[in-house]
Structure formats: C-alpha cells, structure tokens
Design goal:
266 residues; alpha+beta; five-stranded mixed β-sheet; 8 helices; 46% helix; flat; binds adenosine-5'-diphosphate; histidine kinase
Amino acid sequence: VRVTFTPIHRREGGAAGTIAVLQDVTEQENLEQSRREFVANVSHELRTPLTTIRSYTEALDDGALDDPQLASRFVGVIRNETERMIRLVTDLLHLSRFDSREARLRLQPTDVAEMLEDVADRFSFQLRQKRIAISVSVGRGTGTAWLDRDQIDQVLGNLVSNALKYTPEGGTIALEAEINEEGMLAVTVRDSGIGIPKKDIERIFERFYRVDKARSRNMGGTGLGLSIAREIVKAHGGSISLHSELGQGSRVTFTLPPGKPKGDEA
Ligand code: ADP
C-alpha cells in the first residue's frame, strides 16, 4: 500500500488537517514486474539468433566461404535463425494487437469438420516425415460454428505444431470436436508425446515459458504459441486448458461459443 499525505491549509494560515490517500499498489507493481520480465525475455530471445548469425557470418568471412560445402551449411544456419526471428517478431506483433485490443474478430459460419480436416492436411508432409498418424473425429451437433477462421486456424496450427514437435516418431495425434455439457464447442488436440511435468503445467500459457528452452529453440519454437492461442480463444469468449501426463502425452482443449453472436459482431 502506498500512502500519500497532503496537508490542508486554512486561507488565514495554519493547518486545518491532512488528507491521507491509501493506494493499493500491489497490482501495479505486479504489472510493472511482468512488463520488465517481458522486455528482458524479448531482448534475450532476439539476441540469441543475432549472436549466432554474427558468429556464422564471421566464420564465412574468415575463410569458410572458400569451402563451398561448409559455406552452404553456414548459410543454412543463418537462414534458419533469420526465419525464427521473423516468426518471433510476427508473434510479438500479434500479441501486441491483442494487448492494445486492436484485434478484431471476423466471425463467419464455419464447418468444423472441414476446418479440422484442413489442418490435418496442412501438416500431412511433416506428419509423414515423422511417421505420426493423425485422426479427426467430430461429434454430433458440431456442424457449423461462428468463428474467425484465420485466427482459429492459427490456434489449431500452433497446437498441432506443438503436438508434432513434442511427439516422437511413430506416435499419434488426434483432433476432436464436440459440443460439451455447457453447450460450447470443444476442440481437442491430443498427442502421444513426451508430456509435460506437473510443476510446469500451470505456467505453460505464460509468454516465453517453456519446459526445456534448448529443446524448444532447436525445434524452432518461439515460446509464444500457447499464449497467442489463449488470447485468440479468449477474444472469442472461450477458454483453453492443457492436461498432460509425463511420458504419456498431452491434450489441449479450447472451447468456443458456437452460435451466431447476438447484436453487433464482436
Ligand atoms: P514453443 O514455441 O516453445 O513450442 P509454446 O508456447 O507453443 O512455445 O509452448 C510452450 C512450451 O510448452 C513448449 O516449449 C513445451 O515445453 C511445452 N509444450 C507445448 N505443447 C506441448 C506438447 N503437446 N507436448 C509437450 N510439451 C508441450
């Protein structure tokens, strides 16, 4: 609590009293603290690829250019790191649009089964490469839902790409949709992957939070996928949750109000 005292003076001189203002600053301080952490995280995340790019360009300059095979490997690394930085900055811009509430949803009636099949198709190449089987199942009554297709595609893309990243060869991924007891459309992405330790689960939707930073980076992750998914789902009026069993797999479920929004578009 912050306390400020302001003395009140009489016009003819002398003190009439004091006004004390008690202000709860814990929330403000928490916000400030998380803003500081965020800036530190962003700087670090940008610095890491830049440092790599610098050292590989130096190596090219120092003679690696004369060895075509080596040179092409180094250029490959530089390209990968650049791609990751572009992804990171794109994700950050996306998040900042949600933070400043500039993000507008363009809700349209969407065939849920078709949308899930589409996501599965989009990843078919990577799935085949890792010999991961994918299944799509849609419960009765799911039919059409009002949602922002581009944004929900991104949510699904982030979730399936995580399932792919954290599931070893030969595993399985399932996409499921149903109407739950509350009448919400519930979409689940389930995998048979490495799972997440209990202690990490509750922080997993935080920006830049990762169970294993090195692994996530090697997989090209930005640490922002789940936080973006949560913002998009929240903007739709739904919620998102993750269940996981270490070594067994994970399942992420998000819910959306399926009906046409009342009155003006959200
Ligand atoms: P990243 O870009 O690192 O994947 P996310 O925000 O998408 O960032 O996920 C945060 C972290 O949650 C990941 O780094 C990973 O440790 C963990 N994670 C997310 N999805 C899964 C999953 N399906 N299986 C295991 N771990 C996961």
